C-alpha cells in the first residue's frame, strides 16, 4: 500500500472552497481510478491548512492517476487556490483501539 499525503497551505478565507473542490474530485473522479483505496480530507480549525491523506495500491496507480487528463483538469482548480506539498509513504504499521 502507498500513502500519499498532500498538504495545502490555504490563503485566508479559502479553506472551505478548497475542501469542496477536493471532495468533489474524490467523489467524481478519484474513487473511480484503478488502484485508489481511500481518501481523508483534513482541515485545521484555524483555516490555514488542508491535508489530503490518500491510500493507493501502489506507485504505478498514482503515476497513472496523475497522468490522467480528467484528474489534471480537476486538480487545476484546486492548485489555483494552493499548490500542495506531496509526499509518498509506504505503510509501516497501523494500530487500532483496544476493545
TrEMBL record:
All copies of domain ABM, residue ranges: 2-95
Family annotation (SUPFAM superfamilies): Dimeric alpha+beta barrel
InterPro entries: ABM_dom (IPR007138), Dimeric_a/b-barrel (IPR011008)
Stretches of the chain forming a coiled coil according to its record: none
Top-level taxon of the source organism: Bacteria
GO molecular function: monooxygenase activity
UniProt KW keywords: Monooxygenase, Oxidoreductase
Pfam families: ABM
The name this protein goes by in its record: Antibiotic biosynthesis monooxygenase family protein
Amino acid at each position: 500500500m502507498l500513502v500519499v499525503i498532500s498538504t495545502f497551505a490555504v490563503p485566508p478565507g479559502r479553506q472551505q472552497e478548497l475542501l469542496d473542490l477536493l471532495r468533489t474530485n474524490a467523489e467524481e473522479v478519484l474513487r473511480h481510478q484503478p488502484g485508489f483505496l481511500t481518501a481523508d480530507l483534513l482541515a485545521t480549525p484555524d483555516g490555514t491548512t488542508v491535508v489530503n491523506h490518500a491510500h493507493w495500491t501502489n506507485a504505478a496507480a498514482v503515476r497513472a492517476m496523475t497522468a490522467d487528463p480528467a484528474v489534471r483538469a480537476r486538480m487545476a482548480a484546486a492548485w489555483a487556490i494552493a499548490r500542495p506539498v506531496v509526499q509518498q509513504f509506504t505503510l509501516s504499521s497501523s494500530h487500532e483501539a483496544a476493545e
